[in-house]
Amino acid sequence: MFYIGFILSGWQDSNLRPPRPKRGAITGLRYTPKIEMQIYSFLFEYKHFLFCKFISNINTMRPNKYCAIFFIFILNLSCNENKTSTAAITVSSTNSYTHEIVVDKLNIPWGFVFLPDESMLITEKQGNLIHFKNGQRTLIEGLPEIEVLGQGGLLDIELHPDYKTNGWIYISYASPEGDGPGANTAIMRFKLDGKQMTDKKVLYKATPNSRRGQHFGSRLEFDNDGFLYFTIGDRGNRDINPQNIERDGGKVYRIHDDGRIPTDNPFVRDRNAKKAIFCYGNRNIQGMAKHPETGAIWTHEHGPRGGDEINIVEAGKNYGWPKISYGINYSGTTFTENTALPGMEQPLHYWDPSIAPSGMAFVTSNIYPEWKGNLMVGVLKFQYLNRCVIKNNKVVSEEKLIEGLGRVRSVKQGPDGYIYVGVENVGIVKIIPKK
Fold first, then answer.
1. Backbone phi, then psi, for 171, in 5-degree steps?
2. pLDDT tens by residue, 163-218
3. What is the C-alpha end-to-end distance of the chain, expressed in Å?
4. Active-site residue 215, yes or no?
5. CATH label of the domain that carries residue 364
6. What is the pLDDT of residues 334-347, one digit of tens each?
7. What is the total count of domains within the chain?
8. Strand order in the sheet with 384-391
9. 3-state secondary structure at position 46
10. I need a labelling partner for 54 at 20 to 30 A (CA). Which of 9, 161, 273, 378 fits?
């Protein structure tokens, strides 16, 4: 039982693969969600065995103090297991759809977009930008220097809303440019001439560089007014960056499509603030999408151990990290006692335990009539696509799709109306309804 507790405490990384076992953990195991479920099943059965044993001892008037201690311990563990964020019900389904791999042999397909000819541009974290057309792959040349550092590398990609006219493409990536060792998140726009990048311009580069490998963000999204939103994680500097508007990291940013700062950004009149900041107090946002009806920008972000969140971003708002959180440290200790404070926003939804969300998209296609209006969220930790049913800006139920196929990194609705999913070590997968 002691060893099992250590294993459970070690499986909490909200973004990367499972961390190295803590001292005292059983080694030699490939720790997977399946193993986790087996452990919980064992604890469930063992809890009932102890309960029966305890009752038996009481009936024979020979109470066993060790049995009682273990019974209380397991009962407490059971209560903790049942901790939940909302009344949303999660179910698994494989009856209504099938899937097809349309681009195979991809390592970490961090982001992808569809060009007007329905070919694809795919970013791979290790620094490759792939043009995929008619079953053929072409590597794009002329990329900027990309630092593959922990969670950093080549990240998201997005097309300008008027791409057919102007040809602008946008990427986020870990850049070593600037002072100091390491890297930080940068945003670049460029055009394509065949397989060559042209007209490259860095629109934003976060400072300072850091050797830390965590929390680069980063997603890109345009709103209905043509502003570009992008996210940068707290870069592992939890207690300094997110709550300080004079520093980069732990923020959502808003700029014009050419990098200019909008005059109505919330902190443009603050002398020392980073003028591109739109809102702050975020940990590591790796999902962002425009609501198809309201035009609002929705995000999700990684919590620590528990407390992954969905939010709707608003100008100047403070989303609380790390002053408030529904999560705890990976070690099991607390870093805040507060889940709410004045002047800080509550999440629209949160997950506990963490699911490690990455990528998100709204369903608007008639191909999935029962899913229309739902929010799709990629799940890294438990390896599925999460269908969130939204009512009145609340997640009322959730469904697991393509469960066990792999870590879901990115998701888009294609121009043909189908949902496409980037799955690590698999490729780009198309979700096809059964007729």
1. -135, 155
2. 999 999 999 999 999 989 999 999 999 999 999 999 999 999 999 999 999 999 99
3. 48
4. yes
5. 2.120.10.30
6. 999 999 999 999 99
7. 2
8. 89-92, 394-401, 384-391, 375-379, 357-362
9. helix
10. 9
